[in-house]
Write a structure and sequence with these properties.
Keywords: Membrane, Transmembrane, Transmembrane helix. This protein is mainly α. Helix content is about 75%, strand content about 0%. Helix 2 runs parallel beside helix 5. The longest helix is centred in the last third of the chain and has 33 residues.
């Protein structure tokens, strides 16, 4: 356990170092960053639409059931990509009007790298290069974690060293991430016929949903307490 904790802490320091390095060296081309964000978004959207909707590509698409595993969710789970693309589209528009310090020094070129890596993963998966696809998705977690760290540091809502369930229970958690996890677990429970996998996924999904509901209630109560007058 101590070794695992050391690796986690060390990983966080690496992410912070990479963030400081990219902030100092990469935000020199503000217009290029924004233009490339738009271009790679269109590229990602087109790739996913083709992979998911083209009837001739249905058997090769990861959204159509290729390379089924014991933790593969039901196909309806991938419908969340519609919402994801909608939000990403909102970002590429919002970046032109948002806090430029956040876009240029914060998100920087990381959105471009995440998008390119995602498309590369999709191509490798469809061409049956599963090991390379797995390595690619692991590499993708680096810029994703950098962006997540930046946003959390700027918002100051949640301590980076606090466990996910811990700050979720306090009503300060990552609701979108928790909802995605619950959505995925329900999908696994629906898709998998093995009793152990089915019930494990279902129980975990319910537990996660309970934590989400509890955190929402506590946040509402906390806001109510803040709005209560000090006198009277």
């Amino acid at each position: 356990m101590s070794c695992l904790a050391f690796l986690i802490v060390d990983y966080q320091y690496i992410i912070i170092y990479l963030f400081s390095l990219t902030k100092a060296t990469m935000a020199r081309f503000p217009l290029a960053i924004k233009v490339f964000n738009v271009l790679v978004y269109i590229f990602l959207l087109g790739s996913n639409v083709y992979s998911g909707l083209d009837p001739n590509n249905k058997n090769n698409s990861p959204y159509g059931g290729k390379h089924i595993t014991f933790i593969s969710p039901a196909p309806f789970v991938f419908g969340v990509w519609g919402l994801i693309h909608f939000l990403l589209g909102g970002f590429v528009i919002y970046q032109w009007f948002a806090n430029q310090d956040l876009v240029l020094d914060g998100i920087n070129w990381h959105f471009v790298s995440i998008t390119v890596l995602n498309v590369l993963w999709l191509a490798l998966w469809e061409s049956d290069h599963l090991i390379l696809a797995w390595i690619t998705i692991l590499i993708t977690t680096i810029p994703v974690t950098i962006i997540y760290t930046i946003l959390k540091q700027r918002s100051r809502d949640v301590s980076l060293n606090e466990p996910t369930v811990g700050y979720l229970y306090k009503g300060e958690g990552d609701f979108s991430g928790s909802l995605v996890i619950a959505w995925y677990l329900y999908g696994v429970a629906v898709e998998q016929n093995d009793a152990a996998i089915h019930w494990t996924a279902l129980v975990l999904a319910i537990i996660n949903s309970i934590f989400i509901l509890v955190s929402i209630v506590q946040k509402i109560r906390h806001r109510g307490e803040e709005s209560t007058p000090l006198l009277g």
